[in-house]
Amino acid sequence: MKTKNRLAYVLIAVVLTAGCTKDTVSPATPAPAPNNQPVPLQTTVQAAVSLAGSASLALIAGSAISNTGATNVTGDMALSPGTSIGGFPPGKLTGTLHINDAIATQSKLDLTAAYNDAAGRTCTDIVTLSGNIGGLTLTPGLYKSTSSLAISSGDLTFDAKGNANAVFIIQIASSFTTTSGRQVILAGGALASNIFWQVGSSATFGTTSVMKGTVMVMQSITFDTGASIEGRGLARTGAVVMEGNTIVNP
Q1: What is each CA distance from 162 to 46, 63, 183, 184, in whole angstroms?
Q2: Which of 150, 160, 216, 217 could form a disulfide with 188 if both were Cys (CB 3.0 to 4.6 A apart)?
Q3: Three-state secondary structure of 99-150
């Protein structure tokens, strides 16, 4: 068993590329990172995902934006191609609302490009995540889940190891959830603006949970009561639903 565990965490010592790119041959086999085990360190340096015109947006939705309660959004909001926006007021927007204008249309195109970029990344020392990632500490690099991910039974820490430019990319094949009160914690100089979540379906942030990073989802995003994010909630096709939340573009 000890030999098996050691083999599970062997990393490739020689890194063939200076950054992750879209794989043109067969992808590398990710090293596993199960709960309660040290997460393998990666040596491949990640390039940030370019958000282009969507960078100024705190929220983007495809079908609708709705709010209940005293939500505060700092940053612009965009809706395209939908037209339904409700709950502002009582929600407060410190920024500009774009509904099917040139900026909304371009931001959706830029979001699609950024989403595809993040989803297409691969490298030799990519690390697999699965299930509940609460309690883990992630260092800079590229992470992949072939199913859903949740932050529950513990908080999740991003540790930049003293490098404020360090980038973290998390690829999630289906849904992403946080349970009530769970937090994403930044350590070692990590910045929310350098964390990118690519979600294959939808994301739900539990009551009073605290998120960090740019969350790019294929479908919808739901912020339960009191949930907050330092980052962006960017939904390609579905709705963004809020209830007394704090959303701040980093």
Answers
A1: 15, 40, 21, 18
A2: 160
A3: ECCHHHHHHHHHHHHHHHHHHHEECCCCEECCEECCCCEECCEEEEECCCEE
pTM, to two decimals: 0.86
pLDDT tens-place string over residues 135-171: 999 999 999 999 999 999 999 999 999 999 999 999 9
- What is the rounded CA–CA span in Å between residue 29 and residue 31? 7
| Number of Cβ within a 10 Å radius of residue 83 | 10
Q: Are 10 and 38 in contact (CB under 8 A)?
A: no
User: Cβ of 135: how many Cβ atoms within 10 Å?
Assistant: 14
Enumerate the domain spans of the chain.
30-248
CA–CA distance, 234 with 249 (Å, rounded to integer):
11
